[in-house]
Design a protein that fits this description.
The chain has 25 helices and 20 strands. With 678 residues, it is of the alpha+beta class. β10 (227-233) and β11 form a beta hairpin.
């Protein structure tokens, strides 16, 4: 994902739930959500909405049990012996790169004994154990009138100093400086990190993703998307006696529930100018990319069974992205949705003006000016690069090393993925094809990479004329330095030498825009902070949050979607599609049908506020018991990225009954069941 998308998502000012002195209806009118930090639970809101406020012990236990899983997922401790519960799709990417492990991801895995649990390479889980305010230290020396780039440079220096001091004071903890309210507040989060995480159990992929792409982002659902891992401490399971969730029976209709996790981001306070940029430029570009690459992968998978198995995870990931971006884009194209957003922006401006901040309203015009710059530079920044071709990325690293002598870049070049295969060639040809379509005919990138050739021919020649995937050739160029790289006639090195200056120019332009964007984001956040104070939750930042809601069905397609689905519906849905993919059931499940309680719940929906990054999030009841596992949202909830609502927008969760039925009646996972019962 490009840095600009990251900015546009991070500039989402604040996911706000108004409470206290502000009237309750304003929350619905502003549509700013309810992603809360653990530092400031909104007692007034909880009391007014639900009639009770959990005590400090509730939140302390919930925080301690909640985990960041890998780079961007969520999970929780669910036993006293380090047992971790998350989604199947979160675990799948960490399976060992072996044929046996590939089969586990598809056909399931069960460790009968502790000694059978398999370590997942590269996987870390993180537990947030300490939070501190470092706002004064981060802003030290930052002058309001200074150039935005200078301001940001000072903050970066201060941030590194804060991190270094934290590492020195608490070497056993991993520190992270978290920017909240777009820089109005800075926190130091410190994590306990566990890097010995072992696979305990995962069901068949077809059960975890039952319904496949057609049912993705829809409801009713019958996917049982779960997996168990375990954190180990040396030669024994980690002791989590004081920080795990007690297994519950599951929710009932209308019940109040809470979810914790690491939502990656929202865009609920982007200005209309920014949303117009997304609607007109960014989303069409990303959707075109995904559609084209997905079609290519499907073509290869359709013609070769081995390729289908190898590409299956990539296809599933891209299908998910295709539906995600389509749904979000459709929200921006919906006149009713846009009207609600305009009304929310108008309300914010009016409240700011009434509070005496009329001069600060200029920030909206300044953001509009930057959005115009984004439109002008978008195409060059998007296409003047390696087009995600690993081979060309390695070549660019080698060229960069020859210029700078940076040992870290050389190490990255040696370790990078490199392959010359038909799939990579076809994907890169697609990048060149789209670059030619969207860039001017005289664009230097088009001239350098195509030189009058067709994209398919240019991609084929690039891959045919390189030896960079040979480790010895890469090492020879790195050892030879600038002279060897400049003399090389390797096709990938020649291409990298041509496009490296173009990439540098695009990055410099982007850096200048991002410096302005950062400064404007801080201005806008400080305005909101001045109007509403600290009684608003900050924007999602991929760090730990919790949200509240109720278990509720909703009106859907002229009828009503139930609050929960049951096994009888899962088997019926398979039968209705003649047991054909993606509604086929594994043989083990068909054999177990007579043993399964067909009235046991499979999935349920609730109104908690979630986003990407909440995959694997635990759902708990008011007693703090585990009562569900979040894995998706319905198609209507995709609009929540820009404007929160809970009329028909829902988070979709696995019911505990489904997990227990699967463990007991299909997989015979009695060791796990005994552990959950403790």
């Amino acid at each position: 994902m490009s840095a600009r998308v990251q900015f546009l998502r991070s500039l989402a000012l604040v996911a706000v739930a108004l409470f206290g002195a502000v009237a309750a209806p304003a929350q619905d009118e502003l549509g700013l959500g309810k992603m809360w930090t653990f530092e400031r639970p909104p007692a007034a809101w909880l009391q007014r909405e639900y009639g009770f406020v959990p005590d400090a012990a509730f939140f302390a236990r919930l925080q301690a049990a909640s985990l960041r899983f890998g780079k961007g997922g969520s999970a929780s401790f669910v036993s006293a012996r380090g047992l971790v519960l998350t989604n199947h799709h979160c675990v799948r990417e960490f399976l060992p790169k072996t044929p046996e492990a590939l089969e586990w991801g598809i056909d399931g895995f069960l460790a009968k004994e502790a000694s059978d649990e398999v370590r997942l390479p590269g996987l870390e889980i993180k537990q947030l154990v300490r939070v501190g305010d470092v706002s004064v230290r981060i802003e030290a020396g930052v002058l309001p009138a200074a150039d935005p780039a200078v301001q940001e440079a000072i903050r970066v220096t201060n941030r590194e100093a804060v991190l270094a001091a934290a590492r020195a004071a608490d070497p056993e903890l991993e520190p992270q400086v978290v920017k909240l309210y777009q820089g109005a507040v800075w926190r130091l989060y410190q994590y306990r990190v566990f890097d010995d995480v072992r696979l305990v159990m995962m069901p068949h992929q077809q059960i975890a993703m039952f319904g496949g792409d057609p049912d993705n982002f829809t409801y009713p659902r019958y996917a049982i998307d779960f997996a168990f891992c375990r954190a180990w401490d040396g030669d024994k399971p980690l002791d989590t006696t004081d920080c795990h969730l007690v297994w519950g029976d599951g929710p009932t209709a209308g019940e109040v529930v809470f979810v914790t996790g690491n939502p990656a981001g929202t865009q609920r306070q982007l200005t209309m100018a920014q949303l117009d940029f997304l609607r007109d430029v960014r989303y069409p570009r990303v959707r075109e990319l995904i559609d084209a690459r997905l079609a290519i992968l499907r073509d290869f998978a359709r013609d070769d069974a081995a390729a289908e198995k190898r590409l299956r995870s990539s296809i599933l990931w891209m299908e998910n992205g295709q539906k995600l971006f389509r749904g979000e884009h459709q929200a921006l194209l919906d006149p009713a949705f846009v009207a609600r957003k305009r009304a929310a922006e108008t309300m914010f401006k009016e409240r700011a003006a009434k509070a005496g901040h009329a001069p600060d309203l200029r920030v909206w015009d300044d953001i509009a000016d930057v959005a115009k710059e984004c439109r002008q530079s978008e195409a060059a920044y998007y296409f003047h690069n390696a087009g995600w071709l690993p081979l060309l990325m390695r070549a660019l690293d080698i060229v960069e090393f020859a210029r700078t002598g940076d040992a870290a870049i050389a190490a990255r070049a040696r370790a990078s993925e490199c392959s010359v295969d038909p799939v990579q060639q076809a994907l890169f040809a697609d990048h060149l094809r789209r670059a030619r379509r969207h860039l001017p005919a005289d664009d230097p990138y088009v001239r350098a990479m195509l030189g009058g050739r067709e994209p398919e021919a240019a991609a084929a020649e690039l891959l045919a004329g390189t030896r960079l995937c040979d480790a010895a050739e890469t090492e020879r160029l790195l050892a030879g330095g600038k002279a060897a790289v400049e003399a090389s006639t390797d096709s990938a090195i020649v291409a990298a030498r041509k496009i490296a200056p173009l990439m540098d120019a695009a990055k410099a332009t982007q850096a200048a825009i991002e410096a302005k964007e950062t400064a404007l984001g801080t201005r806008l956040a400080k305005l909101l902070f001045a109007v509403y104070g600290e009684e608003v939750p900050p924007d999602a930042t991929g760090t730990l949050r919790w949200s509240d809601g109720r278990v509720l069905g909703y009106e859907c397609n002229g009828t009503r979607a139930p609050w929960r689905t049951v096994f009888q519906g899962m088997f019926a849905r398979s039968a209705e599609f003649d047991g054909l993919p993606p509604y086929d059931l594994p043989r083990e499940w068909l054999l177990a049908k007579d043993r399964i309680d067909l009235q046991a719940a499979v999935d349920f929906v609730c109104t908690v506020d979630s986003a990407g990054g909440n995959s694997g999030s635990p759902v708990v009841n008011r007693k703090g018991e585990f009562t569900g596992l979040l894995f998706d949202g319905n198609i209507e909830s995709l609009a929540n990225r820009f404007l929160y609502g809970e009329r028909v927008e829902r988070s979709v969760c696995v019911h505990p009954q489904a997990i227990v039925e699967a463990l007991r009646k299909v997989y015979g996972a009695n060791r796990i069941l005994r552990e959950l019962a403790r």
